[in-house]
């Protein structure tokens, strides 16, 4: 008899099943009734943009101001993880990955198209050509600058903080822990994750659909493909999604990181080529002036709703509000991915990098390509590029015809778009699987393949039926409720950070007793000597162990079960009191080394030092607070020191306001 084994899966039914039903329903409606669905969704979208645009304006403004405040506040030094956490990726790889996931294909699609569309828009036709060029750059900076990355930054920071600091699952539901507590494990949490999964899927599907169209257009322009029929789009999607699946299955550490590094290098090469062979002096000057113009107009742009300028309001809805909605709808996906790769960074480092570095690169990129296109249009093309402004799929490749080595550079552009496509898709598969499994650590590879297959099938179905615009409208509509959800993330962060700061600043009780004057001769000898490894281990095996065992016996008399744990590498011993609800209490002593200064090696007024390293016994605690040298403690003083920390521990856990910080699954040790 053939035995069938049940398929192993880590998918959460409460999240995956409702999400797939909703995704399939919307995609089928968009494919079967594309015009009807598009008109219906556009009506809803237009109502939101016209009547509720202030929600987006105020929300995005609050995101920016909050992150700037946080970066310069006392909370900036808090690490996204334990206090001793180290970043998992190099700075270059980290920036490359968050940049590729955050902007990706959009940079290639809009770098020429958006400045040209602003420049040629009838709304600004009354201005001079110079003023239109300045406005085109200013609004492009505004839409691709700090505001966009602030949206991603808030979501990514919230996820990383609660996942790595509170040790909750890397899931949007975790960002509500201070507000919902354990309810995040039930229906409320599932609802939040369903929303995130659907929003992520819609955003990636529409973006990849438009990316396929641009790749097809480029290959047609270069004569590689004879046309842009559906069969060629099927071929392109098949190849690219296959590459994306291979990259995603290999994991973030390999496929995603390597492709992101390759892409950022390729993008810089293309940027330098256009800068060097385009109108170089004009580009450098316009970039410099554009930065100043952006800074001078930052607040007026931020708060401007164009309510006094009725003729520009349609443009405002179609560009600024659409962009804010688009970035917000993408934020669950980008935020989850940024959080995944940001463990170990400080809050200040995270915000500074996420806000400033990609923004600055976007400004340089948009200046070089957008201003080059405008310059060519005025001085060489005689308005030919302006006439193509409404056809962004082909505009980039037409622009490249005014540069040397057109064919080679066009192929490089297609290669970059392909890699952006793959990095967006593979990180998207990773994120969707993470949401659908409630951040399961290890999932079967068929699940990743399944998400890639679903992306490919639905994107092609919508491309063929002309339903991508309807799905894009659906994506933009979901941004309204999520903009409010992100505001609640800020409330959660404020509450959690205040408790976090107080937790680590809590000092000992005023009743604790400092050193006595006993054994002062022995202490003096220890102060001026340098210990070797054997003497420290002997101290741990005798004084520390005796103190801990004596404490264990006394705890037992008070009906408290204390465990003594010993480890070899590094040599250490600890006393632990386990709890089911709150954090375990841990006080340990380990062998640590420090390098002796070269100046002291030959110092005559100190004992001889045989080695450049000295050893000392250092305390450590279960909540990763910084320990200290305990080599001068006698057995009784060591017992007293443990009790000081235990008294502090008891004082903290009995206070209700600390409940969410101490009861967040922190007993699970992180590697």
From TrEMBL:
<feature type="transmembrane region" description="Helical">
    <location>
        <begin position="474"/>
        <end position="498"/>
    </location>
</feature>
<protein>
    <submittedName>
        <fullName>BCCT family transporter</fullName>
    </submittedName>
</protein>
<feature type="transmembrane region" description="Helical">
    <location>
        <begin position="92"/>
        <end position="112"/>
    </location>
</feature>
<keyword id="KW-0813">Transport</keyword>
<feature type="transmembrane region" description="Helical">
    <location>
        <begin position="53"/>
        <end position="72"/>
    </location>
</feature>
<keyword id="KW-1003">Cell membrane</keyword>
<dbReference type="InterPro" id="IPR018093">
    <property type="entry name" value="BCCT_CS"/>
</dbReference>
<dbReference type="InterPro" id="IPR000060">
    <property type="entry name" value="BCCT_transptr"/>
</dbReference>
<feature type="transmembrane region" description="Helical">
    <location>
        <begin position="191"/>
        <end position="210"/>
    </location>
</feature>
<dbReference type="Pfam" id="PF02028">
    <property type="entry name" value="BCCT"/>
</dbReference>
<feature type="transmembrane region" description="Helical">
    <location>
        <begin position="141"/>
        <end position="164"/>
    </location>
</feature>
<feature type="transmembrane region" description="Helical">
    <location>
        <begin position="264"/>
        <end position="284"/>
    </location>
</feature>
<keyword id="KW-0472">Membrane</keyword>
<feature type="transmembrane region" description="Helical">
    <location>
        <begin position="350"/>
        <end position="369"/>
    </location>
</feature>
<feature type="transmembrane region" description="Helical">
    <location>
        <begin position="408"/>
        <end position="436"/>
    </location>
</feature>
<feature type="transmembrane region" description="Helical">
    <location>
        <begin position="448"/>
        <end position="468"/>
    </location>
</feature>
<comment type="similarity">
    <text>Belongs to the BCCT transporter (TC 2.A.15) family.</text>
</comment>
<feature type="transmembrane region" description="Helical">
    <location>
        <begin position="12"/>
        <end position="33"/>
    </location>
</feature>
<keyword id="KW-0812">Transmembrane</keyword>
<keyword id="KW-1133">Transmembrane helix</keyword>
<feature type="transmembrane region" description="Helical">
    <location>
        <begin position="230"/>
        <end position="252"/>
    </location>
</feature>
<feature type="transmembrane region" description="Helical">
    <location>
        <begin position="321"/>
        <end position="338"/>
    </location>
</feature>
């Amino acid at each position: 008899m053939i035995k069938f084994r049940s398929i192993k899966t880590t998918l959460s039914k409460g999240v995956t099943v409702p999400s797939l039903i909703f995704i399939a329903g919307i995609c089928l409606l968009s494919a079967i009734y594309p015009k009807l669905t598009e008109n219906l969704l556009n009506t809803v979208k237009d109502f939101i943009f016209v009547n509720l645009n202030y929600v987006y304006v105020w929300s995005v403004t609050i995101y920016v101001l909050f992150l700037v405040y946080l970066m310069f506040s006392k909370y900036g030094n808090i690490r996204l993880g334990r206090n001793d956490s180290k970043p998992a990726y190099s700075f270059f790889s980290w920036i490359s990955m968050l940049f590729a996931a955050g902007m990706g294909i959009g940079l290639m699609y809009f770098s020429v198209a958006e400045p040209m569309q602003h420049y040629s828009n009838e709304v600004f036709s009354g201005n001079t050509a110079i003023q239109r060029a300045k406005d085109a750059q200013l609004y492009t900076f505004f839409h691709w600058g700090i505001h966009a990355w602030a949206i991603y930054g808030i979501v990514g920071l919230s996820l990383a903080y609660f996942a790595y600091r509170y040790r909750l699952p890397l899931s949007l539901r975790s960002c509500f822990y201070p507000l919902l507590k354990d309810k995040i494990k039930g229906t409320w949490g599932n609802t939040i994750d369903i929303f995130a999964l659907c929003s992520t899927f819609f955003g990636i599907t529409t973006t990849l659909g438009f990316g396929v169209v641009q790749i097809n257009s480029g290959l047609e322009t270069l004569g590689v493909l004879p046309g842009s029929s559906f069969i060629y789009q099927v071929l392109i999607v098949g190849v690219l999604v296959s590459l994306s699946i291979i990259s995603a299955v290999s994991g973030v550490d390999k496929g995603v990181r390597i492709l992101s590094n390759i892409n950022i290098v390729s993008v810089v090469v293309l940027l330098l080529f256009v800068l060097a062979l385009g109108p170089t002096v004009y580009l450098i000057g316009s970039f410099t002036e554009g930065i100043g113009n952006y800074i001078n107009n930052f607040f007026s742009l931020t708060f401007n709703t164009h309510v006094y300028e009725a003729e520009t309001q349609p443009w405002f809805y179609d560009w600024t509000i659409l962009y804010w909605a688009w970035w917000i709808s993408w934020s669950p996906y980008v935020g989850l991915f940024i959080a995944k790769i940001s463990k170990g960074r400080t809050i200040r480092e995270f915000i500074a990098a996420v806000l400033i570095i990609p923004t600055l690169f976007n400004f340089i990129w948009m200046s070089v390509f957008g201003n080059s296109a405008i310059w060519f249009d005025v001085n060489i093309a005689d308005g030919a590029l302006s006439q193509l402004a409404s056809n962004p799929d082909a505009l980039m490749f037409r622009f490249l015809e005014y540069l040397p080595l057109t064919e080679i550079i066009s192929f490089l552009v297609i290669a970059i778009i392909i890699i952006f496509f793959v990095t967006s898709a593979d990180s998207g598969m990773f994120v969707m699987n993470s949401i659908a499994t409630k951040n399961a650590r290890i999932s079967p590879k068929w699940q990743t393949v399944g998400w890639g297959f679903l992306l490919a099938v639905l994107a092609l179905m919508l491309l063929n039926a002309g339903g991508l615009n309807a799905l894009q409208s659906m994506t933009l509509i979901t941004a309204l409720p999520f903009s409010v959800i992100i505001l609640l993330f800020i409330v959660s962060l404020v509450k959690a950070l205040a408790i976090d700061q107080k937790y680590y600043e809590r000092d000992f009780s005023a009743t604790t007793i400092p050193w006595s004057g006993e054994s002062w001769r022995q202490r003096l000898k220890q102060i001026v000597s340098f210990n070797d490894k054997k003497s420290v281990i002997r101290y741990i095996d005798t004084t520390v162990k005796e103190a801990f065992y004596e404490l264990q016996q006394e705890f037992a008399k008070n009906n408290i079960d204390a465990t003594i744990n010993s480890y070899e590498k590094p040599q250490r011993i600890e006393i632990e009191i386990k709890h089911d609800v709150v954090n375990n209490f841990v006080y340990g002593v380990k062998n640590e080394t420090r390098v002796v200064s070269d100046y002291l090696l030959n110092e005559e007024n100190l004992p001889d030092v045989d080695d450049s390293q000295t050893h000392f016994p250092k305390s450590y605690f279960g909540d990763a607070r910084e320990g200290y040298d305990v080599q001068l403690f006698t057995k009784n003083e060591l017992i007293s020191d443990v009790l000081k920390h235990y008294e502090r521990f008891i004082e903290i856990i009995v206070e209700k306001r600390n409940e969410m910080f101490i009861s967040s699954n922190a007993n699970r040790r992180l590697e």
